[in-house]
Amino acid sequence: MRLDNMLIAEGVAGPEKGGGVGAAANASAAAGAGDSAIEHSDYRAKLGQIRQIYHQELEKYEQACNEFTTHVMNLLREQSRTRPITPKEIERMVQIIHKKFSSIQMQLKQSTCEAVMILRSRFLDARRRRRNFSKQASEILNEYFYSNLSNPYPSEEEKEALARRCSITVNQVSNWFGNKRIRYKKNIGKAQEEANLYAAKKAAGEGASPYSMSGTPGPMMSPPPGDESSMGGYGMPGMNGSGYSGALGYDLHPESPDV
DNA sequence: GGAAATGATTTGGG
DNA sequence: CCCAAATCATTTCC
């Protein structure tokens, strides 16, 4: 019913996917804006584990059910010597057994669903895998922010430029400015120091080049001496060993973290 | 270990 | 869409 559909939708039940668990070796980290590729393979690996356990258990139940059924059949056959037993009665017995076992399977399915839900919330919520930006990125963003304090709203192009220089996404730049604005406003008194600090830094670093905001937002501004915007992001997230323990003995042992 | 800092998301308004 | 504000979850610093 619902649970089945959900499990199929999540890829736990249903058609077997290719090589199964160990077939998530995706080593193509697109240079551009590829941000949701690596986390996905990790997610799938864990999902594969869940699927494996699920099928294992399912099979076990199936087997147990069959064994129990034949056992009961034997008992009935034995009894048939002392009293007449109709085929209908046997069939009813079998049905009762199957019903019982299917309810047990239901439990398995439900706890599997729960496990998937937990997994989803663990991996799909980016808040849980937050990483601080690099020092340089913060520098760049702060520079812009305090240089344009009167209007700290970078246009789309400016955001893109900042994103490139910081090796982060445009969305992250937007987030950063959203956070920065609100948090700057919250305590202006204290942040003022920071403003001065960055203003001074600016003046010292650039000498006579007031690219504040009046003129064109030239995309060719020369960065300060210590630029180096390559540096390939900020490394792979360590992915602390979550080890969620589901209701029914699901336990994803902390796997070796590498791609 | 707890507080502060910080990045990301949700909510609500335009 | 973008933004502000509130909130969440994690990292960093003490």
Automatic annotation (TrEMBL):
Family annotation (SMART domains): HOX (SM00389)
In terms of InterPro entries, this protein maps to: HD, Homeobox_CS, Homeodomain-like_sf, KN_HD, PBX_PBC_dom, TALE_homeobox
Q: List where Low complexity composition bias occurs.
A: 209-219
Region annotation (Disordered) ranges? 208-237
Query: Where's the Homeobox domain?
Result: 124-187
Q: Does the keyword 4Fe-4S apply?
A: no
Protein keywords: DNA-binding, Homeobox, Nucleus
Q: Which GO terms describe its cellular component?
A: nucleus
Q: Does the keyword DNA-binding apply?
A: yes
Q: Which residues bind DNA?
A: 126-188
Q: Which family does it belong to?
A: Belongs to the TALE/PBX homeobox family.
Q: Which protein is depicted?
A: Homeobox protein extradenticle
Top-level taxonomy: Eukaryota, Metazoa, Ecdysozoa, Arthropoda, Crustacea
